[in-house]
Write a sequence for this structure.
């Protein structure tokens, strides 16, 4: 497999987003336009079956994009953003006001208890903005969200409203659905493009309630798409320790045509795990694998 390093000349004309909507470790917003720069020059419908924070989908901003995820509360956020942005603003404002009026940690824990008793998009929206470092962790056995409150105060409702307005303009003509990635990828047609950003095996097993994710199953789904003429781009573990150590993955021979590394800077997950210790040796790079 040929290794290519990202160059400035390959950056797409896609407009970077000014604000971050969902604060979530692994967010691709800072280099979404770089990833898009490696997309085919033309393609049909755009699919993102591991939606997460949706940074690539929103940066691309194409009408009729299809975003999906297995997390029902997460999809509730995206559906509200697309069709009822004022509802999203109200969800955030109501919880922000409760936290602002009392002990931040105690009020945060109350929102977390509400979410864990009945998982829903309104609580998850606030938790991911207020939790420590955006490290959204779920217990395997029951999906319990366990991340403690962050050290910084959550952004004001006015600031959040501005983010909702910007993101709504990008995704209002997109469709969002709660479904397994394999089901979403089966909806594609020849010439469509799928961007996959699954949990990373070397660092994200506890995040997003993704402990049962199988990379081998994803490779099978990508192979099936490729056989039908669907373009696939996969973001997956790249390098650790200041870019010196490559993550070894069981990548099927011949499935991907190109391999590209995109510098991600220092690991936010490591920042959480190392409790403030130096991250000088913790720079990482994402690996992009392309079927074309």
């Amino acid at each position: 497999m040929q290794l290519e390093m990202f160059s400035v000349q390959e950056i797409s004309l896609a407009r970077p987003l000014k604000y971050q909507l969902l604060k979530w470790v692994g967010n691709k917003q800072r280099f979404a336009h770089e990833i898009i720069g490696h997309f085919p020059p033309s393609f049909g419908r755009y699919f993102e079956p591991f939606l997460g924070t949706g940074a690539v989908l929103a940066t691309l901003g194409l009408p009729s994009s299809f975003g999906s995820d297995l997390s029902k509360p997460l999809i509730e956020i995206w559906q509200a953003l697309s069709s009822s942005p004022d509802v999203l603003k109200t969800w955030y404002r109501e919880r922000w006001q409760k936290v602002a009026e009392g002990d931040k940690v105690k009020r945060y824990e109350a929102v977390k208890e509400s979410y864990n008793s009945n998982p829903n998009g309104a609580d998850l929206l606030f938790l991911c903005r207020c939790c420590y470092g955006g490290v959204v962790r779920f217990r395997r056995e029951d999906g319990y969200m366990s991340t403690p409150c962050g050290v910084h105060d959550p952004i004001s409702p006015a600031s959040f409203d501005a983010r909702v307005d910007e993101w709504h303009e990008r995704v209002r003509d997109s469709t969002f659905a709660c479904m397994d990635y394999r089901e979403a990828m089966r909806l594609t047609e020849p010439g469509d493009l799928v961007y996959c950003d699954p949990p990373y095996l070397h660092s994200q097993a506890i995040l997003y309630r993704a402990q049962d994710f199988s990379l081998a199953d994803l490779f099978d789904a990508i192979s099936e798409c490729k056989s039908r003429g669907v373009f696939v781009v996969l973001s997956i573990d790249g390098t650790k320790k200041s870019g010196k150590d490559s993550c070894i993955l069981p990548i099927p021979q011949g499935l991907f045509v190109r391999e590209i590394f995109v510098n991600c800077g220092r690991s936010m997950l490591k920042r959480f795990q190392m409790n403030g210790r130096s991250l000088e040796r913790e720079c990482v790079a994402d690996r992009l694998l392309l079927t074309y």
About this structure: The longest strand covers residues 231-240. Residues 76 and 168 are 14 Å apart (CA to CA). The two ends are 12 Å apart (CA to CA).
